[in-house]
Amino acid sequence: MSLGLTLGWTLGLIGSLGTTELVVILVIALIMFGGRLPDVARSIGKSVNQFKRGLKEVDDEVSRPEPPPPPKSLPRDAEPTRTPDSAKEPQDSLKH
Asked: What is the pLDDT of residues 23-37, one digit of tens each?
């Protein structure tokens, strides 16, 4: 029984892939798709940045307190109603 670390994978009919086989497969993939990799990496980077920006906006929106509702105003043609206390004329304390 081996307690060492192995980097190989076991696949159904193929058998196990060792480190050398994985390196060869990666080199072949780089040769075939190498011209497009910078564009793919750039678009993935832009997508990740947009996703992070979206998460930050949502987090800011959730943590921001809700502003109080605007005060209700009277229509322009309506006059303020008078209560019975405000209908009385103020008494002049200087007259006796």
From this structure: 998 898 888 878 888
